[in-house]
Design goal:
The chain is α/β, with parallel strands linked by helices. It has ten helices and 16 strands. The chain folds into two domains: about 10-150 and about 310-335, Response regulator (Rossmann fold); about 150-305 and about 345-370, Rossmann fold (3-Layer(aba) Sandwich). It is elongated.
């Protein structure tokens, strides 16, 4: 099967330097201070980490990674988050707060395109801005992004699904992130999945414009029907509602793609309530978090693409320090417009011709922590 290469990709070309030590301040709380490792007591570097939401374990892990890196690198860290996935207004307020208090840099997982004007304002004010997890559009809206290759993550679960179907018909329900805005993480995973399955795409930056029926070329090849795309907001309750809506359109769905593991678990609950068993439906997702890997082991999710938010946060903190101290930004990965932090397919049902790791191995590295 020919794999579509998403435009604008690049690979790892440089390492990041590490320096100094630290402090942590929670949003709305006074920051604490610490001396540098050298004992010189040099001035700390202020950094705000602004994640999409505090309710998703992915972003909680990212915050923990940033805290550890801050303690290692002489950074006074402030944490902020949107009220929910997609909440751009709260993120904009946090960016403005970072500018007002004189931070040197911002790390952000953008909740949507509306934050770009605030990011531009921060950069004009002299702050370094690094995106994590979600590449903004355009990518040069920030100094650099540390992220999973989300298109590749989607391809992995698509390839595995095609191989597992072994020529059988695919009746597909797609549970995406949003239906009111376009963000790269959303369409890259969705379109990567369909491409990995071997379905011809329309515009690969748009979800839902593919032909509703046709043939897929992955694995042994077969026929497909796309029942529809439903938004979940990346949340468990959203995934459950999305799955209920899809089943109302077609109760014969046997393949479910989900934007992330909270949405996947919500979809599983809806399928279970509808009397569907693990033998009836393939559920695939992206995250590879500790809980999600456990769900793969338990047969709730069949396969997931594992990403590493702790690594994203650590590299982001280190890059801000390097930018402040030397003015040097890390390089993007070859063929990409971001720095690829890695991805691996996780399943206990390996498919011939599709490289994967099992849940035991994935548990050792979930979230990218030590």
């Amino acid at each position: 099967m020919k794999i579509h290469m998403h435009k604008g990709r690049k690979t790892l070309t440089s390492a990041l330097a590490i320096s100094a030590a630290a402090a942590l301040a929670l949003t709305g709380c006074a920051g604490t201070t610490a001396t540098s490792p050298s004992g010189g007591g040099s001035e700390e570097i202020g950094v705000s980490l602004i994640v999409k939401t505090n309710s998703n374990p992915f972003f909680i892990a990212m915050q923990e990674g940033a805290k550890a890196a801050a303690e290692e690198n002489g950074v006074n860290l402030t944490l902020a988050a949107g009220k929910e996935d997609g909440d751009e207004d709260t993120q904009i307020q946090a960016i403005e707060a970072a500018i007002s208090k004189g931070d040197a840099g911002i790390l952000i997982t953008p909740n949507g395109p509306a934050v770009l004007d605030a990011i531009a304002k921060a950069r004009d004010a002299g702050l370094f801005v690094i995106a994590l997890d979600t590449v903004p559009d355009p990518a040069d809206s920030v100094d650099i992004t540390f992220a999973t290759d989300n298109y590749l993550a989607g391809q992995y679960i698509g390839q595995w699904t095609a191989a597992t179907l072994d020529g059988g018909d695919a009746v597909i329900g797609l549970i995406d992130l949003f239906d009111d805005k376009a963000v790269t993480v959303d369409y890259n995973r969705d379109q990567g999945f369909l491409d990995g399955l071997g379905i011809e795409l329309g515009d690969d930056t748009i979800n839902g414009d593919e032909e509703a029926t046709g043939s897929y070329s992955g694995g042994a090849g077969g026929n497909y029907t796309i029942v529809g795309n439903e938004a979940s907001q990346g949340a468990e309750d959203g995934g459950r509602t999305a799955m209920e809506n899809l089943l109302a359109k077609n109760p014969d769905i046997n393949v479910v793609y989900t934007i992330n593991e909270p949405a996947a678990y919500g979809a599983y609950q809806a399928l279970e309530a509808a009397g569907k068993t693990a033998d009836d439906v393939i559920i695939v997702s992206v995250d590879g978090g500790c809980a999600g890997v456990g769900q793969v082991a338990d047969g709730i999710i069949d396969a997931t693409s594992q990403q590493y938010p702790v690594k994203m946060a650590e590299l982001g903190v280190e890059a801000i320090v390097e930018l402040v101290e030397t003015g040097e930004a890390p390089q993007t990965s070859d063929g990409l417009d971001f720095f690829n932090t890695g991805v691996a397919l996780v399943t206990d049902q390996p498919a011939e011709g599709v490289e994967s790791i099992d849940t035991a191995a994935a548990t050792e590295i979930c979230w990218g922590g030590e």
